[in-house]
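Action item from last week, closing it out:
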Amino acid sequence: MSDKTNWRAVLGEHVQGREDGTEQKLTLDKIVTHPNYTLEPTMLYDIALVKLSRPAHMSEYVNTIRIEPNYTAPDHSHCVTAGWGDLVEGGVGSEIPHHASVQIVPTSVCADLYNSIHVAIADSVICASTEGRDSCQGDSGGPLSCFHDGHWTQVGVSSGGYGSARPQYPGFYTRVNHYYEWIKTVIEAN
């Protein structure tokens, strides 16, 4: 994934494959994956940063979201995940982004559920789902955001799960505040 020539960022797109005039297509200057990333068993350190070749133009369609180093979404709080992924397990991706309201699942509960299929859930992971709602294939890399102190805060990055929206297996997300110092260090160095 670190070969920037194979990737570009498309910001402000709503309907995939249709030009609306709101899109910004930018090449990447750099891709930085976490140096300790592992694919198995739960994709630990599943986080990467991209540096755009030029600054994005902020607009109604392109904006930023906060990350807060000291905020952890409380268990059972309501948050939102979004993406262009499958609408049902085994389905096909969507042309437009969809969102799902999900609840934060206590880490201990999530770890117990995944332990039954021999998947370890680390403290660097946050779990979330609501029966029948979850991120799905194709949503990986998308946000898990919670409303906190009057603004949206990104608390997670969609990483994986067992199936989609299965009540016994919540989706798991990379816990953004766990990597705050790494994010800060990478940004300052680049």
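Closing note: The mean pLDDT is 91.
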